[in-house]
């Protein structure tokens, strides 16, 4: 599948902001205050209320997928019944998941009961005139997204939209090794390293990555801000 460079939106986010006032009582003095303020002013994220952002609340898979796709310029595509896992047309994130599946941005390990089948359309002579891959399984968009899952979706979306610009091997030998590297899922290890190498994500003060921990709104905002600033 041909991969198209769609950097324009991300660039626009850097230069055109909305006049959103930031008056959150619970982000003042927070370690992610600057990143949160930047994204709110650009209209990329919203508060829970006019005065509350809830920086330490958790983020779902669907919420983060939408944020990282918009940050990297990936536009949603119309939902197609039967081709979007367990998601229905009425689910708000269906167009984002449909696009992500079409572009191969969701790793199999993030899809419960993952299967793929090729469906063929044949003419009256039995000749194949069309084929398509239909995925089955569950994305479970309402689940909280873990830190390793956030790293994977971040790197997948970033790399997909910048393939032409990063079409070379990346030396990961100098990338920091976390004290809990052994806990990072095998399917996520490479993406975590790439996300760290790109400066999108980092560990805690005690050099722990905490891959299974749920991602907070503050952490998500920080990563998204770094991606659009890249």
What is the overall shape? globular
Could you estimate the helical fraction of the residues in percent?
25-40%
Strand element count: 2
Q: Determine the strand fraction and express it as a percent band.
A: 5-15%
Low confidence ranges: 1-19
For the termini, the CA-CA separation is: 25 Å
What is the secondary structure topology, with strand pairs?
Layout: H1 8-15, H2 33-41, H3 61-71, H4 94-102, E1 112-122, E2 128-138, H5 147-161, H6 186-197, H7 217-229
Antiparallel strand pairs: 1-2
Helix pairs in contact: 2-7, 3-5, 3-7, 5-6
Can you put this structure into words, describing what you see?
This protein is an alpha+beta fold and 230 residues long. Helix content is 33%, strand content 10%. The protein has seven helices and two strands. The protein has helices spanning 8-15, 33-41, 61-71, 94-102, 147-161, 186-197, 217-229; strands spanning 112-122, 128-138. The chain has a two-stranded antiparallel ribbon. A hairpin with a 5-residue loop joins strand 1 and strand 2 (128-138). It starts with 7 loop residues before the first helix and ends with a helix.
Task: Please summarize what this structure is.
The chain is an alpha+beta fold and 230 residues long. The chain is 33% helix and 10% strand. A two-stranded antiparallel sheet has the order 1-2.
Features:
230 residues, two-stranded antiparallel sheet, alpha+beta, disordered N terminus, 7 helices, globular, 33% helix, single chain
């Amino acid at each position: 599948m041909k991969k198209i460079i769609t950097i324009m939106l991300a660039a626009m986010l850097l230069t055109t902001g909305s006049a959103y006032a930031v008056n959150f009582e619970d982000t003042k003095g927070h370690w992610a205050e600057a990143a949160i303020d930047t994204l709110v002013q650009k209209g990329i994220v919203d508060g829970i209320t006019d005065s509350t952002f809830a920086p330490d609340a958790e983020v779902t898979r669907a919420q983060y997928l939408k944020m990282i796709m918009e940050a990297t310029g990936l536009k949603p595509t119309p939902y197609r019944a039967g081709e979007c896992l367990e998601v229905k047309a009425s689910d708000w994130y269906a167009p984002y998941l449909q696009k992500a599946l079409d572009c191969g941005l969701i790793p199999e390990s993030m899809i419960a009961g993952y299967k793929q089948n090729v469906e063929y359309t044949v003419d009256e002579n039995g000749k194949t005139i069309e084929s398509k891959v239909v995925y089955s399984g569950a994305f479970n968009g309402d689940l909280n997204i873990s830190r390793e899952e956030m790293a994977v979706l971040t790197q997948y979306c970033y790399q997909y939209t910048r393939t032409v610009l990063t079409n070379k091997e990346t030396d990961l030998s100098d990338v920091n090794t976390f004290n809990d590297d052994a806990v990072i899922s095998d399917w996520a290890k490479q993406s975590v390293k790439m996300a760290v190498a790109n400066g999108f994500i980092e560990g805690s003060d005690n050099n722990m990555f905490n891959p299974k921990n749920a991602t907070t709104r503050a952490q998500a905002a920080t990563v998204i801000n770094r991606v659009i600033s890249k």
